[in-house]
Amino acid sequence: MSTPTTGSSTEATPRPPSEDEDRPEKRTERGLSGQSGSRPAGQAALLRQVASSPAVVGLLAVLTALILSSILILAADSEVRYTATYLFNRPGDFLHATASTLSEAYSSLLRGAVFDWRATTGVRMIRPITDTLTNATPLIIAGLGMAVAFRAGLFNIGGQGQMILGAITACYVGIAWNLPPVAHLLLAVVGAALGGLVWGGIAGVLKARTGANEVIVTIMLNSIAAHLLSQVLSLKAFNGEGETGNRKSLTVADAAQYPSLAGDSFRLHAGFLLALLVAVAVWWLMERSRLGFQLRATGLNADAARTAGMSVPWVTSLVMMISGALCGLAATAPVLGTQKSMDESVVGTIGFDAITVALLGRSRPLGTVLAGLLFGALRAGGTAMQAAPGTHIKIVLVLQSTIVLFIAAPPLIRAIFRLPERREPLGATSPSPASVPAAAPAAPAAKEA
């Protein structure tokens, strides 16, 4: 009898499943083991990204400055130094003196900048926070002006001179003109912006047309503006009742003054609302407008921007004009808000402090506002902190200076705290603030204008 032939003889014989494959728990274990390797890697990458972020570096810079300032406070306190002589015999005395000195110093800072819980009236209790907002107003506006220049790859160090020109223009409009209230204030504000725009535009045009370094030009313009202010205060249109050594202008008209936001018992004025509006406008300009894209593109790579058809000389001039206009606008805070007049120290060191504010804020509007509030709090709380027993009068200046030092040197902070190096993603929108001077675009030839 012949054996029948089946059609399945040419097909591969199916392999029976192994014992491990047939068990569902083995398949589950293999799936989990495949995912377990990716989870730690993803978490490590996330932690690395967070640890190397500019925000963390900025916070650690402030923390490091506070630690260094605390050491200096302790070193200057006589009781701490005395208890340190017998530290190993009675360490409790040293620790108690240390805690008492630091708590008194920093509680004084908080009471002078945020809330005075030792005050006897409600007005005195909340006055510190209003002083903080008042001090932060010009720092925020001028810091935003610096941030615009930084994002475009330019280092505007002439905020001081631009503020002086804005103060002169605003003060003249407020004194010499007689206009209705709203119109008078608006024209004084616009005049301040125009004064700063012209002074910043000089540096921008020289940079664009001749390749002059904007740092050197703006430093020289600062000196010229300071001497111009001294000369202007001797004119009849400005001269007031001040002494010859410290001349002072007349008080600006009531119609040109910022209205108060919290009553006559506080110094807070409507200039703070203007600072917030300026922050929103700068955010829209840099992040949502076509012009802002050109500014950022020029700051990242001037050659690439030129190849793409952008006029780098025009962008350079416009950036310095915008930056100068914002710095001039910042001068309205003291001239039309707090002092309501002008003297030789009307802008103080706000123009230079604004550079630190922009660096600490990473040249972003929100960060600049927060950094301005921080420095406003340091200014407001500095007076109360200096009154604390054992606290040196210059400790607040040391604190601000060390913040500048650590903000300007991110590698130093990364080395201290063993942070990983930051890897810039593709398509980053701006250079790091610490590298702004090095990132400044090369000056194009005059024929490209």
Give a short summary of the structure.
The chain is mainly alpha-helical. Helices cover 67% and strands 0% of the residues. α4 (54-76) packs across α19 (410-417) and α8 (159-176) packs across α14 (312-330).
N- and C-termini, Cα separation:
103 Å
What's the total count of β strands?
Answer: 0
How many structural domains?
2
Strand content: under 5%
Instruction: Please give the radius of gyration in angstroms.
Output: 30 Å
Provide structural commentary:
The chain has two domains: 53-113 and 391-421, no CATH class; 136-376, no CATH class. The protein has helices spanning 19-22, 24-36, 38-51, 54-76, 78-84, 91-113, 122-151, 159-176, 181-210, 214-232, 271-288, 290-300, 302-307, 312-330, 332-338, 350-360, 365-386, 395-407, 410-417, 436-439. The longest helix has 30 residues, at 122-151. It is globular, with a radius of gyration of 30 Å. The protein is built from 20 helices and no strands. Helix 6 packs across helix 17 (365-386) and helix 8 packs parallel to helix 15 (332-338).
Please specify the SSE layout and strand pairing:
Elements: H1 19-22, H2 24-36, H3 38-51, H4 54-76, H5 78-84, H6 91-113, H7 122-151, H8 159-176, H9 181-210, H10 214-232, H11 271-288, H12 290-300, H13 302-307, H14 312-330, H15 332-338, H16 350-360, H17 365-386, H18 395-407, H19 410-417, H20 436-439
Helix pairs in contact: 4-18, 4-19, 5-6, 6-17, 7-11, 7-14, 7-16, 7-17, 8-9, 8-10, 8-14, 8-15, 8-16, 9-10, 9-14, 11-12, 11-17, 16-17
